Amino acid sequence: MKLHIAVLPGDGIGPEVIAQAVKALKSIATVYDHIFTFEYGLVGAAAINKTGIALPEETLALCKKADTILFGAIGSPKYENDPEAKIRPEQGLLGLRKELDLHTNIRPVVAYEDLSNKSPLRKKWIKDVNLCFYRELTGGIYFGEKTFSEDGNTATDTCTYTRNEIERVAHRAFKAAQSRKHKLTLVDKANVLASSKLWRKIIKEIAIQYPDVAVNYLYVDQVAMQLILNPKQFDIILIENMFGDIISEEASVIVGSIGLLASASIGDKYSMFEPIHGAYYKATDRGIANPIAAILSAAMLLEHFDLYEEANLIKKAVDKSLQLQITTPDLNTKYDNISTSKVGDFIEDFINNPEETNLN
Amino acid sequence: MKLHIAVLPGDGIGPEVIAQAVKALKSIATVYDHIFTFEYGLVGAAAINKTGIALPEETLALCKKADTILFGAIGSPKYENDPEAKIRPEQGLLGLRKELDLHTNIRPVVAYEDLSNKSPLRKKWIKDVNLCFYRELTGGIYFGEKTFSEDGNTATDTCTYTRNEIERVAHRAFKAAQSRKHKLTLVDKANVLASSKLWRKIIKEIAIQYPDVAVNYLYVDQVAMQLILNPKQFDIILIENMFGDIISEEASVIVGSIGLLASASIGDKYSMFEPIHGAYYKATDRGIANPIAAILSAAMLLEHFDLYEEANLIKKAVDKSLQLQITTPDLNTKYDNISTSKVGDFIEDFINNPEETNLN
Ligand SMILES: CC(C)[C@H](C(=O)O)[C@@H](O)C(=O)O
Ligand SMILES: CC(C)[C@H](C(=O)O)[C@@H](O)C(=O)O
């Protein structure tokens, strides 16, 4: 298969983790005789520094002509401490989601047996957790009208959802549930919000079309508790944009490190793959950033193009690295100084030689 | 002291847990020679069933003439499954908050040593956690305009904050930090939301007036993770209404049971005290509801009127009940069948006779 991949490393640890994901993809191409080409673009603070804006036209054009996108992370402390900055790195990411209409954000959360000691949760709580978020990504309060009063003393955000926005992510979520444990939980705040009432109404209608999927409805505050109290109860979690941001990041504690969670953002035409962690500025260029989330995002990219065998090989490589503790310090209790690129090298070696790879 | 207390037991387990809180208050009155009088009112589904609305005029009048309010819980499955119901139990609670202008919701989260085995979190993670939410309670998306398009296919919520709304809860939160560990964390989503940008701007201004308080700023998604990964880092958490609902309920997992968390809702003129748990319908009248959150809410009520010695006696009684496992089944690993009212009886006995009380 030929794939032209737009690579947007972004800020902070983005470039170093994405470099490992690209290494993995290159090895896969070699082993399976695919032709993967990579073209790099600027986004986030990296783009602001060079061009003055977070999502340059050139980058957007590159993404549109590519077959798919691999994205690192955006964000910079410079902007976090200036709530009034008009130009912000986040505009790069949010702009891509909107311009490419990447409405469905898929975030799998799978607990690894080998890492159960890294989770703050007791082992028996997290064993066998295997859930997956379907987060709506281009609607809601993120993209509603934002206004400030003239005197700067009043600010308003608007959260709108339409039937179409809800239906398209919902159908994908129901279909995913059909290929998994046939359970779907809608997360909303229908006892308070109008938009949540619309979600609940529409999901109730859609549920009839999927009689083999058991649907339940939970308020977001209850889910914030239940996700930790009893994560095994969940299979597919369908959730609107803002709540999805909060609850899916919370779910990272189950796994033991946010450096393990990958995501796919899918639209009708375009697709983008990114680790769910942020730019983690403080760690930049120190070789301590965990590349596994980026590498697993590359595996999700392969799955998107039905390259399941290839994706599975990457996942096996990751499993092996976790098992042997060829991992960055966030996960490692055995070895010091296993760096970002060392983990990437191990994954690369494993892909090239699944039978022989070991720590060397 | 003379206190006339409006008692609104509400729905589900509300009446049974509130009965225990009233018992505790009555014992306190006897021991300390106070005159506490109690006047009951309807709210929530209980009020809808009898009067057709969730917050009858009579109840509101009762609350306004009382010195303070003790509130149980509202909610009923009848309404949860009907997103289109025009009359809902929540209107009782939200109506009270708004009508009485109860803008500051205080939710302390303290990990009990004796209960560390009930938390899904490992013991070392939660030892010494002692944090407190200051949640804004009468603004934001809860009370903004809500609209549906005529065809019912589009819904909009509005989230507005004004300087005044932010300042009044913020000053209370900063003052609380001064009497505690001198740390305050603002939780927002200032990288995306206009209202969050306003929060961050105003808190930066106010922080200058409290040089002895160390302030930090975190995005809500990061807090959802950090609250579990490292809860000890927090002292006062200042948070807007919707995020506060989610994150404070999440915090209940640290303690081991949501049946332990009390809250105070304070305005310039009125005050209300309530457990943070809901109506928990399935448990109604089964004697399994944990009354401690309601009893600790009564202790917060006493503190509000500067009756610290009295409040401490209640807290000591609660500590003793936890230590001896005179607790409902959600917490108990030793005895079967210790009922809601049995826990209340123990607390009552302890208040009357702190030196002698034991299991009997
Ligand atoms: C960086 C930020 C705008 C983004 C979001 O809030 O969606 C991030 O937290 C995420 O979850 O991908
Ligand atoms: C019952 C509901 C409206 C309420 C809220 O969302 O504020 C509750 O969850 C709470 O936190 O007190």
Radius of gyration of chain A, in Å, reads 20 Å
Let me know the average pLDDT of chain A: 95
Provide the β-strand percentage band of chain A: 15-25%
Structural class of chain A: alpha/beta
CATH architecture of the largest domain in chain A, by name, is 3-Layer(aba) Sandwich
State the strand order across the main sheet of chain A: 2-1-3-12-11-4-5-10-8-9
Number of helices of chain A: 14
Span between N and C termini of chain A?
33 Å
Protein name (chains A, B): 3-isopropylmalate dehydrogenase
GO molecular function (chains A, B): 3-isopropylmalate dehydrogenase activity; metal ion binding
Domain Isopropylmalate dehydrogenase-like (chains A, B): 4-347
Subunit structure (chains A, B): Homodimer.
Write up what this structure looks like.
The structure is a homodimer of 360-residue chains. The first copy, chain A, is α/β, with parallel strands linked by helices and 360 residues long. In chain A, the strands form two sheets. Chain A has a ten-stranded mixed beta sheet, with helices on both faces. The first copy, chain A, has two domains: 1-108 and 257-360, 3-Layer(aba) Sandwich (Isopropylmalate Dehydrogenase); 120-255, 3-Layer(aba) Sandwich (Isopropylmalate Dehydrogenase). Chain A has 14 helices and twelve strands. The two termini of chain A are 33 Å apart. The longest helix of chain A is centred in the N-terminal third of the chain and has 19 residues, at 14-32. In chain A, a hairpin with a 4-residue loop joins strand 11 and strand 12. Chains A and B meet through strand 6, strand 7, helix 8, helix 9 and helix 10 of A and strand 6, strand 7, helix 8, helix 9 and helix 10 of B. Strand 7 of chain A pairs antiparallel with strand 7 of chain B. Bound molecules: 3-isopropylmalic acid (IPM) (2 copies). One 3-isopropylmalic acid sits between chains B (90, 93-94, 245) and A (191-192, 221).
